[in-house]
Write a structure and sequence with these properties.
The complex is a heterodimer of chains A (710) and B (446). Chain A is built from 28 helices and 15 strands. Chain A has 710 residues and is an alpha+beta fold. In chain A, helix 10 packs antiparallel against helix 19, helix 14 crosses helix 15 and helix 17 crosses helix 18. Chain A is globular, with a radius of gyration of 30 Å. Chain B is of the alpha/beta class and 446 residues long. Helices cover 30% and strands 14% of the residues of chain B. An eight-stranded mixed sheet of chain B has the order 6-5-7-1-8-11-4-12, sandwiched between helices. Chain B has a two-stranded antiparallel ribbon with strand order 2-3. Chain B has a two-stranded antiparallel sheet with strand order 9-10. In chain B, helix 4 runs parallel beside helix 13, helix 9 crosses helix 10 and helix 10 runs parallel beside helix 12. The chains are: A alpha+beta (710), B alpha/beta (446). Chains A and B meet through strand 9, strand 14, helix 22, helix 26 and helix 27 of A and strand 6, helix 6 and helix 7 of B.
Chain lengths: 710, 446
């Protein structure tokens, strides 16, 4: 634990000595759950590394972060013949003597004798350790301030946490809440909720109490100079949000990208291809304008390559795979949805509810993702809602509000499906049992009270309706976030499949606006892409300017993006004019068109293609850095394509013209004078012009500028 | 090439309830603002010059959870629903008997130490593997670096051979990030040699390209990148550079390259180790370690025997090709070979998996995950041979003596390899982080 600053200590002491008001020796303790358990949570007793571990510690197990008050109460008061507490001599209770260090405790001194928590616990034991009202619990928590802004003159902020109880009473729980920073490098938070600035930028603090969670955003602008008119031109609503935040954070924006830079970027982002030389020439020959750039976007949205590329992206998301005849049907269906502009909600509804033979009814394959209803529900939550609920299978989610019950009620929607051999069908039986009670749970969407009367025959229909409903808090937002990330290089929420209240977006209003736009358009993917790609924000240069070099979250400049394995393989084929050949596919098939990663390709594997065993959305799918470099240098992807028409033409063309055309093909720009000069000289001086041309092409394809989308 | 240049600090989701951090900031050499040459300089300054007992480590990872009660911790007196159908045969450690399908291993046991009381509570492939390979319980907050990456980080890239090599790759524990670089820069992730141990892609020059041409190309690339300063300093660019530099170091050293060529090894030796993946992998590991690598992982999958264990382990599909015979040949050959070459003192060999298996057989004739008991077999690199440490109860369910936790094991391995586990590293987010927050050296091994 970092040392708390002096100011923090002072604030901490003040907080500790404040009266609680709700629990004192006068017997005001109303429930174990609401008054005693939080003390144990704050002291760390039920943390995952301590008694909250799956098998507890030293024979004493508590539920992780107190998600099961009933069980915890029984263990503390009745287990071990009730020796953990001693009503007549409270201070001899093990549950006090150990954490206060009076008896040897491997976990250390977690609850000092002088602390308020110790006193409350002691007094409670003296009263007979009553359970109190088990229905009295924390309904929600409020955090103040919700937005913390640091500056040169202010680098500390004490937070206040208020719990709203089940009877709507309110209490100050600052001293018992758990605080964590989402980025220690930017802001730290002490045990007492004092936030200290550590670096400039934007982050958030996660607060937890009584099974409820909340977050506060923390910002520390990059410069103090904020007066004067905002100078971020607005092309559409997106720019308003981005510009406002840049202004608030004192960040300069980079200039607009050059036309060639924009062209290459948008082609790669929207279709996974490079512009052909004539397309580049055509675009660069006319004066640049937002309108002309929008026309490019529109053209790309209508291209066949768009369909290929986005089918691949969806297939990766859905982990599309399985037996060849199943995968083919699935892929065929998926491609058709993209090609015919099927709304995203319709696609998801079909995936969720399809039945039939896997080789005939493509979307039915979605049901083969998992055998267990619970595993399947986790996939669905991640893919369609951007939620990670897996933790809640075994205990309450530690950083979101999902309880085990929530989890299993959600999973119950997936219970009545038969996956027999080659067919998927709705079953009339099948339940998910709550692990503790062993009894079936009523299916209920996340955050919704279960209502047994609303059950329909195909549970999945009901769930699909809820997921795709316009009011669903996550559906539109998670799609919007994913598409945003693809185009801008970073999600408004990162990771993209982790939309929880304790992981707030960098631009909450913008995310809502994107979600609205998507919903309004009828969940039209192309519409959303157009909306984002038409913004000035999307079209900024990747080159830093002013003070924005360190910014990676506020979109003050475009972010560099890597090319995915299939895209890289395809653009190498495109530039050299030498297509790849894939087993079982006609010649000229591009890597993005492959149905699944089971198509053998050692090159694509080493280039890091998504294996679709788990999500490839977040970070490294494999750390094959060195292996990849070796492959690019010596392996087949580049070296296998040097014998090409491209290189041959160097023998008959004027070197200057050839070099120009090479740059045009590969980089969508003309070579600079220095570059052209050097390579023309190289070609002219070479005794073996063919080898020299091969080497030049090799170098260009290995170059940073080629391999990075910026 | 999605994300292989980027941070290897990718998030995985486990339930220990600590705040999230921004992984895009973690794990890029670029975020440290270092080029390799800067880095090497820093390394030279920080190395206190301590001489580790073990110069290198070969970790044979039995992915899936090897069954302790059928391999190294047999309980012949337990009831029929628990005890192994394999017989117990004596070893060269008096009093120790192991599975009959590991006869060659039984002979070399006097050079090894067997730990039988490894215990933890994480029964999932993903979490268990990460606990064992990083010494930390996984949390959603931070991806911890694997032992291999820690050792690579400490030793840097002084040699041409990458310090951390994974055979065939670093996907373990259901493709978790257990064997990866965690919050350390991606440069310290393992070099994966690929599926075919007899052919490592990219080490040979392409047809028609000799060494001098390869050098000319390299120079051309450098000039090209310099000209197009358009691609400003960003993490993807810097990481890419770091890996290219490593690649050229490797390519420029014939000794280093040859280490990866299995066919340079005499046929008799290749035969001795056994022709399958595990045998070839162990032999390749020996060569790579001889050439200067510090940590080599050989991953053998298929140990997650939830059914038909007595059929699958000794003999899956064809006689003699089962997992146990293959392991027996590979492991024993490795130990003997290292001994013959005088390398065993300086090479730490570790044999383990993410957990043991349920002592009580399940309804499919197999065993399920059982993290409460497991074995680790160690040899060389400062480990005293001929010892048995710890024991489990009559059924092999819980340790009855000297329980050892994964952090203890990690602490011990790192210490033997000259890495101080109490040392603080700084994550790129600026957070100081002790390499290990708990654990102590298992003294009985030394």
């Amino acid at each position: 634990m970092r040392a708390v600053s002096g100011q923090g200590v002072l604030l901490g002491l003040l907080a500790c000595t404040a009266t609680f008001g709700w629990a004192d020796a006068g017997g005001q303790v109303r429930s174990f759950r609401a008054d005693i358990l939080p003390i144990l949570t704050k002291a760390g007793c039920n943390a995952g590394a301590c008694h909250g571990a799956a098998t507890g510690q030293g024979g004493f197990k508590l539920s992780l972060l107190g998600y099961d008050p009933e069980e915890d109460y029984a263990r503390i008061t009745r287990e071990w013949a009730g020796r953990r507490i001693d009503v007549r001599r409270p201070e001899s209770s093990l549950v006090l003597a150990k954490p206060s260090g009076q008896i040897e405790h491997e976990g250390g001194r977690k609850l000092p004798r002088q602390s308020d928590g110790y006193a409350v616990l002691r007094d409670w034991i003296a009263l007979g350790a009553p359970l109190g009202n088990p229905e009295f619990f924390v309904r929600s928590i409020e955090v103040e301030p919700r937005e913390i802004e640091f500056s040169n003159t202010r680098s500390n902020q004490a937070m206040k946490v208020t719990a709203v109880m089940s009877d709507l009473s309110r209490r100050d729980v600052t001293t018992l809440a758990l605080f964590n920073s989402n980025d220690d490098g930017l802001a730290e938070v002490s045990r007492h909720g004092v936030v200290t600035a550590r670096g400039r930028g934007l982050t958030s603090i996660m607060v937890r109490y009584g099974g409820e969670v909340a977050a506060a955003r923390v910002s520390y602008p990059f410069s103090e100079r904020r007066g004067g008119a905002r100078d971020f031109p607005v092309w559409n609503e997106i720019d308003e949000h981005i510009g406002a935040e840049l202004h608030r954070m004192g960040l300069a924006a980079s200039p607009l990208s050059r036309p060639g830079e924009f062209l290459r970027r948008v082609y790669l982002d929207v279709t996974g291809r490079l512009p052909e030389p004539h397309e580049t020439r055509e675009f660069l020959s006319q004066p640049d304008s937002p309108e002309r750039r929008r026309q490019v976007v529109d053209r790309l949205l209508r291209a066949e390559a768009f369909t290929d590329f986005w089918t691949l992206k969806f297939a990766d998301l859905l982990l599309l795979g399985g037996k060849p005849e199943h995968a083919q049907a699935y892929h065929r269906w998926l491609r058709q949805q993209i090609a015919t502009r099927a709304p995203l909600d319709a696609i998801v509804r079909e995936l969720m509810t399809a039945e039939g033979r896997l080789a005939d009814r493509g979307p039915a394959n979605f049901a083969t993702l998992a055998v267990d209803a619970r595993d399947w529900s986790e996939h669905a939550a991640r893919m369609f809602l951007g939620l990670q609920i897996g933790c809640a299978r075994c205990h309450a989610h530690p950083s979101d509000r999902w309880t085990q019950m929530d989890y299993h009620q959600f999973a119950a929607f997936f219970a009545r499906v038969n996956r027999e051999g080659e067919t998927v069908a709705v079953a009339s039986r099948g339940e998910v049992d709550h692990p503790k009670t062993g009894k079936p749970v009523i299916p209920s969407p996340l955050g919704v009270r279960p209502d047994a009367t609303n059950l329909v025959e195909d549970r999945r229909q009901a769930l699909a309706g809820w997921i795709t409903h316009a009011d669903n808090p996550w559906f539109a937002r998670s799609w919007a976030n994913r598409v945003w990330k693809h185009l801008l290089g970073r999600g408004l929420v990162e990771p993209v499949d982790d939309l929880r209240p304790t992981n707030p977006p960098t631009h909450p209003a913008l995310l809502d606006a994107l979600a609205r736009e998507l919903t309004k358009s009828g969940f039209d993917l192309r519409h959303l892409i157009r909306f984002i790609a038409s913004s000035r924000t999307y079209q900024l240069s990747a080159r830093p300017a002013g003070n924005n070099a360190a910014d990676g979250r506020l979109y003050s400049h475009a972010l560099m993006k890597e090319l995915s394995a299939p895209v890289f393989a395809d653009v190498v084929a495109q530039v050299t004019g030498v297509p790849d050949t894939f087993e079982g596919y006609p010649e000229g098939t591009r890597a993005v068109q492959l149905i699944s990663p089971s198509v053998p390709s050692a090159a694509l594997d080493v280039l890091g293609r998504c294996a679709r065993k788990r999500s490839c959305e977040t970070g490294a799918s494999g750390s094959a850095g060195l292996a990849q470099a070796l492959h690019l240098i010596n392996g087949s992807t580049i070296n296998g394509k040097l014998r090409s028409g491209l290189v041959e033409s160097a023998l008959s063309m004027d070197p200057g013209v050839w070099v120009y055309s090479l740059y045009e093909r590969a980089l969508a720009r003309a070579p600079e004078e220095q570059e052209a000069g050097a390579w023309v000289r190289l070609l002219r001086d070479a005794s073996d012009r063919r080898s020299a041309a091969e080497d030049l092409v090799w170098a260009l394809l290995n170059s940073r500028e080629f391999g990075i989308n910026q | 090439m999605k994300s292989t240049w980027a941070t290897s600090g990718s998030r995985s989701w486990r339930c220990d309830g600590v705040a999230r951090r921004d992984f895009l900031k973690l794990g890029s050499l670029g975020a440290l603002g270092l080029g390799l040459s800067d880095f090497l300089r820093l390394q030279a300054l920080s190395n206190p010059g301590s001489v580790p007992k073990a110069k290198s480590c070969i970790l044979i990872w039995l992915d899936g959870g090897p069954s302790h009660v059928d391999m190294f911790d047999l309980k012949p007196d337990a009831p029929s629903e628990v005890r192994s159908q394999f017989r117990a045969i004596p070893t060269t450690i008096p009093g120790l008997s192991i599975c009959e399908h590991l006869p060659r291993t039984a002979k070399v046991m006097k050079h090894a130490a067997l730990l039988r009381s490894l215990t933890h509570e994480l029964g999932n492939h993903d979490t268990g593997t990460r606990f064992l390979l990083t010494g930390h319980r996984p949390t959603p907050a931070l991806e911890y670096p694997s032992l291999g990456s820690l050792v690579a980080h400490q030793s840097g890239f002084a040699g041409a051979v990458p310090p951390y090599v994974a055979i065939p790759g670093d996907a373990v524990g259901g493709d978790s990030n257990a064997a990866r670089a965690g919050y350390l820069p991606g440069a310290f992730s393992a070099f994966s040699v690929g599926r075919d141990p007899s052919r490592v892609d990219g080490l040979g020059l392409p047809e028609g390209v000799d060494f001098s041409r390869s050098e000319r190309r390299r120079d051309l690339l450098r000039r090209m990148d310099e000209f197009s300063r358009r691609v400003e300093e960003g993490a993807p660019a810097r990481n890419r550079d770091a890996f290219y530099e490593q690649a050229y170091r490797l390519l420029g050293s014939p000794e280093a390259k040859n280490a990866f060529l299995l066919n340079q090894e005499p046929a008799a030796i290749r035969e001795r180790y056994g022709g399958g993946h595990l045998g070839a992998g162990c032999l390749l590991a020996r060569r790579i370690v001889e050439a200067g690598a510090r940590f080599v992982t050989v991953v053998d999958t298929g140990w997650d025997t939830h059914q038909q264990i007595f059929k699958e382990l000794p003999d899956s599909r064809f006689p003699g090709s089962g997992k146990l015979p293959a392991l027996d040949r590979a492991f024993a050959s490795l130990i003997e070979d290292l001994r013959d070459r005088g390398l065993l003192e300086t090479t730490l060999v570790v044999l383990m998996g993410e957990f043991g298996r349920t002592p009580k057989l399940n309804s499919l004739g197999g065993r399920d995950h059982w993290p409460r008991a497991g074995f680790v077999c160690l040899a060389g690199g400062g480990v005293q041979g001929g010892r048995v440490i710890g024991a489990t109860d009559s059924h092999g369910e819980v340790p009855s003596d000297r329980p050892v936790s994964p952090p203890d094991l990690a602490f011990t391995l790192l210490s033997l390899l000259g890495v101080d586990p109490t040392k603080e590293l700084t994550t790129p987010a600026g957070r100081p982080m002790k390499i290990l927050s708990e654990g102590a050296v298992i003294r009985e091994l030394l």
